[in-house]
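Hi there, hope your week has been kind to you so far. No rush at all, and the record is pasted right below.
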Amino acid sequence: MFAHNGFIVVLTLFIALLAAIMPMPLGIDSFRPDWVLVVLLYWAMAIPVRVSVGTAWVMGLLLDILLGSLLGVHAIALMVPVFIAAVNCQKIRNFSVWQQALVVGVLSALQHLLVFWLQFVFLDVVFLPAYLYPVVTTVIIWPWAFLLLRNIRRKFQIK
């Protein structure tokens, strides 16, 4: 992963982890976008051979450790949408950025529902509609994250 400027990919994933744990005011914390998922989905669609399910699993475990959640919950919940994006990368790449944002929204909703379901099975949590608020902000940030990451990929010639 470090050949051909792979360090940049790792750096963007690290920044996404930092954004996922950065403190936010309580009023807007429930709207925190899924930064790790957004960056993983971009790289899984751009370079699916190098960033795919294994990377999602590692990032999910790191996210579990950083958030103090049940180990493996985010790993499983990130693997499924990244797998779907990597398998369908050729189709999704041909969509407009706004259509991609809708696909990312569906994948983000899937990730949140998987996290809820796994926590419900193991920890008996209660579902609240506010649990899906990050899906809206994830859809909103996708076009800008896509453009930023695409510019980074082109500038550093990541293949």
Notes: Helices lie at 6-21, 26-29, 35-46, 53-67, 73-87, 89-93, 97-123, 133-155. The two ends are 10 Å apart (CA to CA).
